[in-house]
Amino acid sequence: MVSRMVVKIGSHSVTDEKGALSEGKMEELVKQITALRDKGIQVILVSSGAVAAGLGELGWRRSNITIPEKQAAAAVGQGLLIEKYRSLFAARGIRIAQLLLTRSDTEDRKRFIHIRNTLETLLRHGVLPIVNENDTVTVEEIRFGDNDTLAGLVTLVTEADLLVLMTDIDALYTANPRIHKEAKPIPEVWEITPELVKMAGGEGSSVGTGGMRTKLNAARIVTESGVEMVIISSSIPDGLIRIVEGEPLGTRFHPHPRFTGKKSWIAYGTRVQGSLTLDDGAVAALQKRGRSLLFPGILSVEGDFHEGAVVSMKNREGEAIGKGMVSFSSYDLKILLERERSGEKIQSLHEVIHRDAMVIYESIEGSSS
C-alpha cells in the first residue's frame, strides 16, 4: 500500500503547443493529486515548466537563447507556474509550498537533512510541496540537469514508497517510437542493464530537458534504494490513481535494494570532490571482506577536500571501485603520505573512510559515479 509518493510532471505535460501553461492539463493533474490525498496518500509534486512558461510569456524561442536568457525565463515562468498551481489547488482547499533546489542542496548532508525536515513538516500539516530546480541561479556545477534526477533524489529525501514520472510518452520502448514504428513498449523492468540504457536513446521533447536516459537514471536511484518507479503518459485518464490501484500501465521498475539511508545519499546525492588510489590489499578488503578503509592502503591522493567530503576510491588502474565520506582532509592525508615515504611509521589512526560511510560498486562503474 502506497502511503507517500513523488509525482514528477514534465514540461510538455503542463504546457500547450505554443509553450504557454495549459490550464486544462494542470487541472487534470490537480484533480488526480486531490483524489490521491483523499485516499490518505501524501504527495510531493516535482514540476517542470518554469522555463517553458517564461519563454512563452516572453515570446522567446528555446532553440536560440543564452544561459542568462534561460535563467531570466525561469525567473518569469516560475512565478507563473506556482501561481497557477496555487489557484488550482486552492479551489480544492489545498495549500501548497514551493521548494527550489540546486544540486549543492542535496550534496551537503546538513542541508539534505534540513530539506527532509522541511518536507516532513509540510506534509504533517497537510501542505502539498511543489519542487523544481532553481534554474534562475544554477550553473553547470550545481545543476541537476533534469527534473527526473531531481525527482529521484526527492524520493530519497522524503523516503517515499513510489515515484511516478508523467511524460509525453506512455512507456519505455525497445527503441524511440517516434522514429522506429516497430518499437514495442516494455511493461516491466527488473534490472537496469547497459543494454537498456543504450536502448533508451538520448533527447527529450522539444520543451523539456530530460529523455529516457534521465528517467533510467532516476529509476536506478530509487530502485537501488528499495523504491518502485513507474513511467506513464500524462494523457492517460486518471493515470496516477490507476497506478496506485495496481493497474499495469506504462513501465514499472521493480526495486532491488542495494543501499539504504545514508548510503543511498552517498551513492546518489553526492558528487566526489577528490579521489584516493588504493593498493591491491585495500581494494580486496573493501570489495571482498567488507572492511573500512585504513591509511596504510592509500597510495595517492588527488584533489582538494576537507573532512566529511565524499571522494572516489580507485584501484591501481584508475577504475572507481566505490566512494565514501573521508575523516581526513586532503592536506592531512598528503602530509601523512610524505611522512610515511620518508620512513616514519604512521600508527594508531582511525579509519580514513568508515564502512558505514562508503558504498562499494558491484562492478567497475567509472569515476563519474
What is this structure, in a nutshell?
The protein is α/β, with parallel strands linked by helices and 369 residues long. The chain has helices spanning 23-38, 50-58, 67-90, 103-107, 109-124, 147-158, 194-200, 212-223, 239-244, 261-269, 280-289, 330-341, and strands at residues 4-9, 42-47, 96-101, 128-133, 162-167, 172-173, 185-186, 188-189, 228-233, 251-253, 274-278, 298-303, 310-314, 320-325, 358-360.
Quick tags:
elongated, 15 strands, Carbamate kinase, 369 residues, single chain, 2 domains, eight-stranded mixed beta sheet, alpha/beta, Archaeosine Trna-guanine Transglycosylase, Chain: A, domain 4
Walk me through the structure.
By secondary structure, this protein is α/β, with parallel strands linked by helices. It folds into two domains: 4-258, Carbamate kinase (3-Layer(aba) Sandwich); 272-360, Archaeosine Trna-guanine Transglycosylase, Chain: A, domain 4 (Roll). The chain contains twelve helices and 15 strands. The chain has helices at residues 23-38, 50-58, 67-90, 103-107, 109-124, 147-158, 194-200, 212-223, 239-244, 261-269, 280-289, 330-341, and strands spanning 4-9, 42-47, 96-101, 128-133, 162-167, 172-173, 185-186, 188-189, 228-233, 251-253, 274-278, 298-303, 310-314, 320-325, 358-360. It has an eight-stranded mixed beta sheet with strand order 3-4-2-1-5-9-10-8, sandwiched between helices. α2 (50-58) crosses α3 and α6 packs parallel to α8 (212-223). The longest helix is centred in the N-terminal third of the chain and has 24 residues, at 67-90. It is elongated and about 75 Å long. It starts with a strand and ends in a 9-residue tail after the last strand. The relative contact order is 0.11.
